[in-house]
Design a protein that fits this description.
Distance between the termini: 29 Å
Helix content: over 70%
Shape: globular
Strand content: under 5%
Number of helices: 9
Number of strands: 0
Number of domains: 1
Oligomer: single chain
Length: 160
């Protein structure tokens, strides 16, 4: 909130009242445009907690699921569509439902690095060769990130 207020003051003094107010109105329009998606993601996250049995989440994505859970998290992240404000509430819900930190770090890392829904765009805008190089260069990172996160949790941190 402080950053927003400071940016408004800077905009007001640099470009004037009309442009600063236009910037705020533009931001509010964007907020109301994405608000339904945020609400839907939060509802989905809450419903995951009551629909998917905790034991199932713990079995496939829990701390005790080991490398299989980390790989499962990575695969799930690669196919999870949507922007962060839609995906992260689901990750938070999975964590509250028994998913381990390692598998969730792998999921978020895979989501950031190799979402399969972006592959056609990358091929179209850049090139198939570039996409293949980038994919194979980052292929192992979600698993490595998940393993490191799991190691940190096991050795140094008590995570609720």
């Amino acid at each position: 909130m402080i950053c927003a207020a400071l940016l408004f003051i800077i905009a007001y003094t640099k470009v004037g009242q009309k442009e600063a107010v236009y910037g705020v109105k533009s931001s509010l329009a964007l907020f109301f445009q994405i608000l339904p998606l945020i609400i839907a993601a939060m509802i989905m996250g809450g419903l995951i907690q009551v629909i998917v049995p905790k034991e199932l989440i713990e079995q496939f994505l829990g701390t005790g699921s080991g490398i299989r859970g980390i790989v499962t998290g990575g695969v799930a992240g690669s196919v999870m569509p949507g922007p962060p404000y839609a995906s992260l509430p689901i990750v938070a819900s999975l964590l509250r439902s028994g998913a381990g930190v390692g598998p969730m770090v792998a999921l978020v890392t895979a989501w950031a690095l190799w979402r399969v829904n972006l592959i056609p765009l990358e091929i179209a805008f850049i090139s198939p060769k570039f996409m293949a190089i980038r994919f194979f260069a980052t292929f192992i990172f979600p698993v490595i990130a998940g393993l490191i996160a799991q190691l940190i949790i096991m050795r140094f941190i008590t995570y609720p």
